[in-house]
Amino acid sequence: MKLGMFTSGYQRNPLEHCFQDAKRFGYDFIELWGGRPHAFAPDLKAGEIEEVKRLIHKYQMPVLGFTPEHNAYPYNFMIGSELQRRDAVDYLKLCLDMAKEMGSDYMLVSPAHAGYLATYEEIWSRMVDTLKELTGHAEKVGVKLVVETLTPYESNAFKSANDLIELFKRIDSPFIVGMCDVVPPFVQHESIMAYMDKLGEKMYHMHIIDGNQGTDSHIVPGEGSIPLPELFKELKDAGYEKTATLELVTGYINEPRLYARRAIDNARAYMREAGF
């Protein structure tokens, strides 16, 4: 199993620190956060992608995944007018183009909050229309579209393995796949490992991190309440050999380099114990 670094928590540091640290600390790849000042897709299109390519080459550190900022201001394809949804779709298509240009295997999207007045019918109609169009573009550029479930603190639209199953019934394409961030199932008392059984070959990626009940906080492995040593053993027994990102976000933004090192050190220790 390959472990990746998520770069959102480095946004007050130079982008080069992400690549330096991923190499120094022993990460296998980067999942690049697509927001300013580092990798906002319109900036990449305007020429800044050359800096990302330079860093990939300099540190021999691939960007396997691109995760554009799209769950809050100014983009959220699940809420607002049709003009706003259309703007978000066009933006995410550009993000897919940039993911392809930097050699990424996948781009990650997560349906965010649809607003308190939205019905299930409205939520699913809007979500399927949007993701079907994005999947069509993913097929054209040859980048997988990975769809992530969220916690109920973040979304009222897409929160469980069953939601992923329903999505794949409605959109049939090898270019749309699923993943599990371990925090959403944990805080909802859903089984993390059930994602493996339910999604099968559609289970493409993971965010492995620690967490606590009652919050969507992403915590350094070993410092929360998720039984991660046992989870790694279960993943080993299940034969999971795909990718997992250690998704530290902005909770450690003051010292991202210290906590990125601690996260990979702890995760590698769990992997060795599990026999990876």
TrEMBL record:
Top-level taxon in the UniProt lineage = Bacteria
Known Pfam families for this protein? Answer: AP_endonuc_2 (PF01261)
The residue ranges of the Xylose isomerase-like TIM barrel domain are 19-265
* Keywords linked to the UniProt accession: Isomerase
Q: Which InterPro entries match?
A: IolE/XylAMocC-like, Xyl_isomerase-like_sf, Xyl_isomerase-like_TIM-brl
Q: Tell me, what is one Gene Ontology molecular-function annotation carried by this entry?
A: isomerase activity
- Supply the PANTHER family for this chain: HYDROXYPYRUVATE ISOMERASE, XYLOSE ISOMERASE-LIKE TIM BARREL DOMAIN-CONTAINING PROTEIN
Q: Which NCBIfam families match?
A: PRK09856.1
Full protein name = Xylose isomerase domain protein TIM barrel
Tell me the organism.
Lacrimispora saccharolytica (strain ATCC 35040 / DSM 2544 / NRCC 2533 / WM1) (Clostridium saccharolyticum)
